[in-house]
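Worked problem 6 (solution included).
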Amino acid sequence: MKTLLISLLFIASNSYAEVFKNADTVSGKALVDKNCISCHAQSFGGDGSSIYTREYRKIKTSKGLLAQVRNCNTMIGLKWFEEEELNAASYLNKTYYKFTE
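Solution. The predicted structure is:
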């Protein structure tokens, strides 16, 4: 029983850690710089990065971050492919969120 529990925890933790495994953060930065910063700056002032660092931010997990990037993609009609969404989310995670799960 103990071995099964440890195995399940290992599998669960690895599946979260792999969300951004194959993402290209350099490409993600270019997408965020081109498409996200001006809207975030308009809404939050400055360079817009306070949306990611605010005390009561909505995003709590790596999967939640990816879901929010997908939501923004849909809401403003960027027409990004899933790979581009993943790249942008990976860049944001590496730069601001630092989720390990």
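Discussion: Residues 23 and 69 are 14 Å apart (CA to CA).
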